[in-house]
Structure formats: structure tokens, C-alpha cells
Amino acid sequence: MIFTELVNEACRVIEVDYPDARLFEVHTPIMDPIMGPDDIRDLQFVFLILDNHTGVINWHDGAMGPLEVVPHPWLQDEVIPFPINLELNEAVELIREDGVGAPFVSLTLRKPLYPGVQEASYIFGCPQIAAHVFVGVDSEKVSIVPMC
Q1: Closest CA to 27 of 11, 43, 15
Q2: Whose CA is closest to 86, among 95, 73, 77, 78?
Q3: Which of 14, 23, 36, 120 has a CA between 20 and 30 Å from the CA of residue 74?
Q4: Percent helix, strand, coil in the chain (nearest 5)?
Q5: Residues 6 or more apart in contact with residue 65 via CB below 8 angstroms
Q6: What is the pLDDT of residue 52?
Q7: The pLDDT value given to residue 148
């Protein structure tokens, strides 16, 4: 699986009806522990669309689902700027090089609306080490944050 190709595909799907849509977040549902991108079977793409509505597209086992329009805004994220400079498999390599060998049960690509956050990050949920592992898509910096 090439993650950025899936992101681009979801963008093409939504741009048919909403050419000004902007990507807010990509995430997996909580899943069985996995070691890498090839094990991901489900993703959800979340977009800002017209009039502060949210557009959601689900991907499952290689197939994009239809666009679902939610009449509410998506909160707590900033728009993810393109291009995404770090591929998911590269982010996984970086966390492994940093000594995180644990599997992850969730994955999110987002730019949280939070003071000091300068870039979008891949965020891996690793309950085996009781941490979220962040990898900046521009800086490639790995940060480990304890789970609450």
C-alpha cells in the first residue's frame, strides 16, 4: 500500500463534487496490533467542505467508498498541506530506527490545532509501550508521548 496514493485517490473522489475540499485527517479505526502499512485494511479520510460541513470517505481492503456529507464541522485539526513529504512506510522505518519495535493499533495523519504544532504528523497508537508516537511529515522528527 502506498499511503500518499490513497490520499490522492480520496482527494480525487471528493473533488468531483467539492473542488475546494481540504484534507483534515486520515485515520484507522482501532485495529488488531500491526507492524506496518501493508497490514492496514481500513482508513477514513476527513475533509473540510463547503459551509463548514465535513466530507468523509472510507477505504476498505482496496476500495474507496462513497462520499458521506456530515452537516457539522470537524474540530481540533488544521488543514494538512500538500504535498505530504513523508510516506507512511518511511515514518514506520523512522520509529523502528528510534527503537520503537512495538506494534501499533491506530494510525492518524493530522495537524492538531494546538499551540506550537508546526506540521502534520503520523501518530501511531502503541499501547504495548503506553505511548503515542509522532513522526513529523516535514521534519521527520520522532516524538514519544505517554498515553493518558
Answers
A1: 43
A2: 95
A3: 36
A4: 25, 40, 40
A5: 57, 58, 59
A6: 85
A7: 79
Query: What is the gyration radius of the CA atoms in the chain, in angstroms?
Result: 15
Q: Which amino acid is at 18?
A: Y
Q: What is the pTM of this model?
A: 0.93
Contact 34, 104 (CB under 8 A): yes
Residue 93 has a pLDDT of: 97
CB 145, CB 129: distance < 8 Å = no
Q: Cβ of 143: how many Cβ atoms within 10 Å? A: 14
At residue 1, the pLDDT reads 62
- Rounded (10°) angle between helices 88-97 and 3-17: 140
Which residue is listed with cell 500518499? Answer: 4
Distance CA 103, CA 28 (A): 14
Q: Extract the C-alpha cell encoding 96.
A: 523502528
Helix (H) or strand (E) holding 41: none
Lookup: cell for 48? 473540510
